[in-house]
Predict the 3D structure of the following.
Amino acid sequence: MARSGGTEGPSPQLPSLFDHLPPWEEDDRAEALTAKVVFPDGPPGDFDYLVPPELASRLQPGQRVRVPLGKGNRLVVGYCVEATIQPVGQRVLKPIRQLVDERPLLSPAMLRLTRWMADYYLCDWAAVLDTVLPAGVRHRAGLRLTTFWAPNTEALAKLDLATLPPKQRSILQILRDANEPLTAPQLQKLAKCSGGPIAALQRKGLLVGRAVRIRRQDIVLPPEPRQPNLPLNPDQQKALDAICQVLHSGQHRTILLYGVTGSGKTEVYIQAIQEVLRFGRQAIVLVPEISLTPQTLQRFRTRFDSVAVLHSHLTDAERHWQWEQIASGRVQVVIGARSAVFAPTPHLGMIILDEEHESSFKQQQTPRYHAREVALQRAAAESVPLVLGSATPSLESWLKAQQGQYLLIQLPRRINDRPLPPVSTIDLRTENSGKKATAITRPLYAAMRETLQEGGQIILLLNRRGYSTHIQCPACGYVLKCPHCDIALTHHRTEQIALCHYCDHHEPAPSACPQCEFPGILYRGLGTQRLEVEVRSRFPGVPCVRMDTDSMQARG
């Protein structure tokens, strides 16, 4: 007999404290696919959003998304900069409502570059993304929304086609023969009918429409006659060999090409890019001014099959078209001003900055980036060479070359040992002593007259806009200044206004001193308008054109 109170069989297992996590820990371990979104026109910083299952396979970093924001859940467009599976815990994340772009507009490498720019230049990440993506790309300029129609096979299977009018049957037959959707204008042309039969088929549910954005017109550039390579002198060949050695190493290196004016730096660039193309890669060439882009583009188009151009004076449609051509990999060389450093080249092989010392490579609006520094970061990240070319290198680049951080290559002589043009310095104190000040001194006048007699052309450079650079009263010394910037206003004779070149404040040009009402107020200083008047008066009958931001505002 079993002892009373005893146990038989295996003892029951007590519940383990570690078999099940408490509810609060189970919630913390819940994971979901989330996206970090930044907003160009919203609050700074990035925000987490839940990626719905139907978008999980389509969403990628670099796409724009439409998401609810704020307490009112208003739908706004933002950039998806990251998509990861992470624990969400008890957080309630708002879901992404819609994808704005079907494919990423920004590559992972470009996202990393823009993240660096936001940190380095102390600005919002979304503002950098808006700078990198041109407005024409964001707004899909040059595209129109077009509906393509196809037969609804399920509805047609239940219908006797003999009951349809002849024109409607003809439209359905055309779609079957075409084996692809067609637009309404195409159907009208092929069926020789109006839009009525097509609309009737739509109402009956016999046609299925799909809206697609198509380009209005492709931009076709006429081909340029190809030109052979120019022979290189020993200095050029040495420079080209050094650049190719860096290129073949497959590693990043910054090269400072220090060559005097006319030493043939551009030919070295071209033949180095030809070596880049042998590897199936692309090259970016940056020039400091938009005015230099056409002549550079012309020269490169005679040596390469496909050359794209990017600068701010393109229309949105042209810029969008060029952007798509570059992103597709069909473009070999991209030429442009500072914004071309963001060209979406999928196979970048080299970046070249010509005239790297120029201050115009620095953007004056947020983000205030320097194209040279951004190019350095991009080239280092993508392990490609960066070539900086200049006849007068910047102090920063020259110091780094002396310290060995940059590879220094020199072109000390001009092509065919041509001499540099003579330069004369004229003492204006002597030239303008004892008479009315003039912009054209006697030596300059003689040189201009000799040039015109020989049938030549003349360029006069003056870094002052307007007619007179300041307006001053000789009686009380009052100087007409901008009430906002406290700098002297410039007299623009064409509009008869006194203009501030900083904030665009303007007011009528005074005929008397605004302070003491002295009628002999003086207009002093020399501007481009005044120089133009003097040239026309001293060289009558000679064609003269003034080029400045006042006279050249229209596109082209």
Notes: Confidence is low (pLDDT under 50) at residues 1-12, 15-19, 21-27. The first strand starts at residue 31 and ends at 38.
